[in-house]
Amino acid sequence: MRRTLWRSVSVLAPVATLGLLVWRLGTGPFIDGVRTVDGGALAAAAGIAVLTTVCCAWRWKIVARGLGIDLPLPSAVVAYYRSVFLNVALPGGVVGDVHRGVSHGRDVRDVGRALRAVVWERSAGQVVQIVLTVAILVALPSPLHSSMLPVALAVIVGALVVALLARTRAAGRSTAARLRAAVAGDLRGALLARRAWPGIVLASALVVAGHALTFLIAARTAGVTAPPSRMLPIALLVMAAMVLPSIGGWGPREGVTAWAFGAAGLGAHRGVSTAVVYGVMVFVASLPGVVVLVVAWMRAHRRPRQAGGHQLREDAVRA
Length: 319
What we know:
This protein folds into two domains: 2-286, no CATH class; 291-319. Helices cover 81% and strands 0% of the residues. The chain has helices at residues 2-25, 28-36, 39-66, 73-89, 95-108, 111-139, 148-167, 175-191, 197-221, 228-241, 252-263, 268-285, 288-318. Helix 6 packs antiparallel against helix 7 (148-167) and helix 7 (148-167) packs across helix 8 (175-191).
């Protein structure tokens, strides 16, 4: 029942957001966004995506190593491209991550640990993004500038709680005690270890910078002339909204961008156009994932044929 309700909300909420925007602003901003996309913007998005994907794969490799799982970087990059495309193309935004964890788990014969590696890798990236977002929103003018001090304090308290949890040595055989011990062990070994956290922070910061730069290029492509110091806080706000349920990335991104642009005096219409340009850029940049899926599909269909051929030759030899 709860899963059905969550699925309904995760689909209806983005649809309702897009419907509200069309009702209030019309279809013009959406059409303008599609029309303004050019080859230069798409090429820039694809180039930046190479950097961000490699950084994400490197972060995943570090976390997996901390959990005792082998993950070569080239394999991680290929799997991450496939994951990004599935996340962008399918509702929910997590299908690719689940597929990535399950596939890696089958390769190493430990699906549970592989899924934990994916969860911790994504969580670590989100934490670094939150910290950078709060820092930028405190330092630069934004629609939420006056409200950021309590948020910054909450982030500091959250960091202290995580640090204390990592030091916890839970005793007892209860389910809660075992869960706390497992979480604390993962935090110590996979995220907060000396050989792990510097690389995780660096990779995550580069990913955030790459996504923010892509948004700034999208804004320029959509005709926004505001300086980067004014646009960067908006970019990070929009990126934070992308963790909400969406349909292939669409819905919350457009809603938050329209609000942020309107609150900053840049015009909600221009905000929606920027979000559309950004969405198209991200989708095109994820298309190498299609190649990965096609190659995997061809290999999967080639194996049964090869196995059948071997069997026929064996039968002929026996005859």
